[in-house]
Design a protein that fits this description.
7 helices
Length: about 170
Amino acid sequence: MINTDLEVYQYQLKQVINMADVGYSEKVMEHFMNPRNVGTIEDPDGYGKVGNPVCGDLMEIYIKVEDDKITDIKFKTFGCGSAIATSSMVTELAMGMNIEEAMKITRKDVANELDGLPPKKMHCSNLAADALHEAIKDYKRKKGELPDDEKDKSKAACVDDCHSCGN
């Protein structure tokens, strides 16, 4: 049980040391320790939620859009350090983009911007682009540009096609 600020700091320090041992880049560590755009957006224009039942990662992305351009983006993530870092990075990549450009952001783009992820983390932690895509699809559905039956057609798939998560 964590009771004091010192114990919280010690716990966080252990997490950082463990992440460094796994082979995370400095950029991943920076986005994990200082994530950008954390939070929710009241009455978002688009909302996306994806998860991986095997590792337990869950990501939510909220977007505000004006003239088909992402003007605000926030995320909430429950998961490991790479899940938090990828969520943070995808928000930075998508901010200010036209929604069609943002739909082209891939998991690989996110990982590359973070100077890579350890191979064992690629398949379960880099769902952030998928959550962004779901938020954009939700926005398009609300505008009547995408039929409601498109809602559940895209399930998250592993980058390396390992299919350990059942997708």
